[in-house]
Amino acid sequence: MTQTAKTPVDFWFDPLCPWAWMTSRWMLEVEKVRPVEVRWHVMSLAVLNEPKMDELPEEYRELLTTAWGPVRVCIAAEQKHGSEVLGRLYTALGTRFHNQGLEKNRETIVAALEEAGLPAELADYADSDAYDTELRASHKEGIEMVGQDVGTPVIAVPGADGEQVAFFGPVVTPAPKGEDAAKLWDGTLLVASIPGFYEIKRTRTVGPIFD
């Protein structure tokens, strides 16, 4: 790798998840303070939870029924316009869903598409399974790196030996900025790269803080 080359960081997200949104905003900060470049991919909470839908609380099952639309629009945008559009579409969707608290409906999705410079008719794919095969393949690529017992986001980065180091999270709020973003990145890579390391966790005492 040359001195000016940036390390690719693959990031799998579902636009519906507020915690993935927090992590994604942190990754944008990391891009400013470390030589990394995020490559965005979609995964799906709806797909992830399909095998255990009967075990989930009714409120969460209802939420998952709304999860198909936004991620289907994202995968359609990627298939039709290339993976490079995902980052700006995710930002446009996530800002509306999470920071602004707008309804996850067609009107909101169309506004996000327009902000991202994409055709409004991509919103039609929210109710279409046309790219579900590609969606499931993208989801599978990410989730198989970490196992089925996690959610979104999944992050993968080349390790010192060239093999991918992958992990779920980190779950953090608010999104760290500046040197704090850099320290969290360095620390996360440090523990994730240790063979046999699996988990650090503590009870969440606050919800996502969107700033």
Could you characterize the architecture of this molecule?
- Pfam families: Rv2466c-like.
- It comes from Streptomyces mordarskii.
- This is DsbA family protein.
- This protein is an alpha+beta fold.
- It has a single domain (5-191), classed as Glutaredoxin (3-Layer(aba) Sandwich), CATH 3.40.30.10.
- 45% of the residues lie in helices and 11% in strands.
- It is built from eight helices and four strands.
- The chain has helices at residues 18-33, 45-49, 58-65, 68-81, 86-99, 106-115, 132-143, 178-192, and strands at residues 7-13, 36-42, 154-158, 164-168.
- It has a four-stranded mixed β-sheet with strand order 2-1-3-4.
- Helix 1 crosses helix 8 (178-192) and helix 5 (86-99) crosses helix 6 (106-115).
- The longest helix is centred in the first third of the chain and has 16 residues, at 18-33.
| Mean pLDDT, all residues | 94
Largest sheet: 4 strands, mixed
Structural class: alpha+beta
What's the domain count? 1
Stated plainly, the CATH topology is called Glutaredoxin
Order of helices and strands: EHEHHHHHHEEH
| Total DSSP E strands | 4
- Assess the beta-strand content as a share of residues: 5-15%
Instruction: From the alpha carbons, calculate the radius of gyration and give it in angstroms.
Output: 17 Å
Low-confidence parts? none
Count of runs of 4 or more consecutive helical residues:
8
Per CATH, the superfamily is: Glutaredoxin
